[in-house]
TrEMBL record:
Subunit structure: Monomer and homodimer.
Role played: Plays a role in the recruitment of the exosome to pre-rRNA to mediate the 3'-5' end processing of the 5.8S rRNA.
Keyword rRNA processing: yes
InterPro entries in alphabetical order: Exosome-assoc_fac/DNA_repair, Sas10/Utp3/C1D
UniProt keywords, alphabetically: Cytoplasm, DNA-binding, Nucleus, RNA-binding, rRNA processing
Family according to the record: Belongs to the C1D family.
CC per GO annotation: cytoplasm; exosome (RNase complex); nucleolus; nucleoplasm; transcription repressor complex
Pfam families per record: Sas10_Utp3
Gene source species: Chinchilla lanigera (Long-tailed chinchilla)
GO biological process, one term: maturation of 5.8S rRNA
GO MF, one example: transcription corepressor activity
Cross-referenced PANTHER family: NUCLEAR NUCLEIC ACID-BINDING PROTEIN C1D, SUN-COR STEROID HORMONE RECEPTOR CO-REPRESSOR
Protein name from the UniProt record: Nuclear nucleic acid-binding protein C1D
């Protein structure tokens, strides 16, 4: 009987998709409640500037993504809406933050150790050895 009611409201083929979507919306709602339970100032005071930027970017991207979904549910093509440019702009900033994070994680070069390593790895002829070879050549003639 429940299956008959579902088929009247929407096609049975999309029931699984709608159920998954409803679960996802519930998870987003729980995350938003968690984020809203702490004041923004308290949250940002505990973070360094890079982490603050990450929180702000993720929040902006999430809100714009949710608006994208809202537009799609209203029959508006979000690809032709300014929200697309906003998502791209946020994505560019997210990539910049990622580059900064990657630079911080990159290893540092110890110039002194590197120059000693290269200096010791290079072969240098010994001056005594070359002088003996030159003298041997002269005495044979």
């Amino acid at each position: 009987m429940a299956g008959e009611e579902i088929s009247e409201d929407y096609p049975v083929e999309i029931h699984e998709y709608l159920s998954t979507f409803e679960n996802s919306i519930g998870a987003v709602d729980e995350m938003l409640k968690t984020m809203m339970s702490v004041s923004r100032n308290e949250l940002l005071q505990k973070l360094d500037p890079l982490e603050q930027a990450k929180v702000d970017l993720v929040s902006a991207y999430t809100l714009n993504s949710m608006f994208w979904v809202y537009l799609a549910t209203q029959g508006v093509n979000p690809k032709e809406h300014p929200v697309k440019q906003e998502l791209e702009r946020i994505r560019v900033y997210m990539n910049r933050v990622k580059e900064i994070t990657d630079k911080k994680k990159a290893g540092k070069l110890d110039r002194g150790a590197a120059s000693r390593f290269v200096k010791n790895a290079l072969w240098e002829p010994k001056p005594k050895h070359t002088a003996k070879a030159a003298n041997k050549g002269k005495s044979k003639n």
